[in-house]
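Long-chain-fatty-acid--CoA ligase
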Amino acid sequence: MQPDFWNDKRPAGVPLDIDMTAFKSVVDVFERSCKKFADRPAFSNLGVTITYAELERHSAAFAGYLQEYTDLKPGDRIAVQMPNTLQYPIAVFGAMRAGLIVVNTNPLYTSREMRHQFKSAGIRALVYLNMFGKRVQEVLQDTEIDYLIEARMGDMMPAAKGWITNLVVDKVKKLVPAYSLPQAVSFKSVLRRGAGQVIRPLVVGLDDTAVLQYTGGTTGLPKGAMLTHGNLIANMQQLRACLSQHGADGQPMLKDGREIMIGPLPLYHIYAFTANCMGMMVTGNHNVLITNPRDIKGFIKELKNWKFTCFLGLNTLFVALMDHPDFKSVDFSGLKITNSGGTALVKATAERWEKLTGCRIVEGYGLTETSPVASANPCGQLARLGTVGMPVPGTAMKVISDEGVDLGLGERGELCVKGPQVMKGYWQNPEATAEVLDAEGWFKTGDIAVIDPDGFVRIVDRKKDLIIVSGFNVYPNEIEDIVMAHPQVANCAVIGVPDERTGEAVKLFVVPRAGGVTVEELKAYCKDNFTGYKVPKQIVLRDSLPMTPVGKILRRELRDTV
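Tokens:
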């Protein structure tokens, strides 16, 4: 279906298209927003709030340092490996203003995962939190990294409070394992030395890559999706268009410079990166960053400090919050938008949230390759549970058969997306790009969907063997490749199984070699090699695995035994 199919189906206030000529680059959006909303709060975290003017000043200092004190050139890659702290947006926007390509990196990556990403992207600089210094030290010699910038938890706090915070994190809570990286420059000294430097102007266009966002690959190794300035601007604008929907008062739901958005999801993940870092920035709104959302008690305590209006989450988090006895004492009277993404929303969770908060959860759909938002439900009572809404303005969707033939409304087929937010391609991987992106710009999602006659889209199955754990993609091949390297494993297979807390969990089947292997040994091996969400929750030892005559493991049969 072409975008105009949805023209008469959108809620009042939502424009039919977006203006791709409004901004020249993400840097242009950023600098204009910082000027327009200078005195408005931009980000809050750990008791500190910075305004848009302060964000502009700090990011300019960061960019000034990169241009003056390093030989990094526009187009070079810089990895940002931090949880949700104030240093994150400063580093990201600072790097972009210096012309660098940002590579978002999960701080919980194992050494193996870090090595792959840093080598694949050709990373030359890394911004990291000192808690992860030990792992940086382990991988450094295997990379092309020339510059290390080390942040500490207390960097953006007043001097005395910052010093005490860093001391507690290091010596009391013992969260900083011993390491030695003498070449690292502290985040605070970067801001100090870069302050007042004149930033050299950039020649950057909408087609230039702004971010490399790594996503799992069906072959096991993650691939870097090249998201351009145009992709990110399009998605910012599309989000803004959806949130222009008229509320009961006939006014847009989202008001520029007036909203307080709670951001517990990690900014290094494309969903929160676009929603918090990019989407809220273009509208001049306030992001409250939650560094450790697993600390539910601390999270709820933080919620009580704000009369928040927007909440970004996913099923796992909604359940954990609602299960805590203190949740009922939070003030929800300002909450008008709750957005769920990253993983499927469970109907019971949505109904319970609406009952407790008075706000209906709006579910959308997207992928790393679509920057990420491809479709969204209307807000409030117009949202339809069990669907992912409609394509965002300026986006076309269709479903195709296995043979690539376009199917009609109400028919099941692979969902394809076309729009200005679809990636440029995979970094240095034209073969993988050609598999998913055709000459007309249609992106094959790998998901099986139905487009209903009234325009709502339903995801009904997955074509790929992808497992989604708390919003993070897990590819069976990656797990299997690493587990097969264990000397006592003869064969193995991985499937996803339903999980009440995380949506899905990883289940590993192993055929041991002679001499055997224990479940405990395999668990320890997986913990050493995978980020937490990839570690199998269930491990089953078997004598054999179901296979085709040519030796391909039948994952579907394994699923049937669950």
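The chain has a mean pLDDT of 94.
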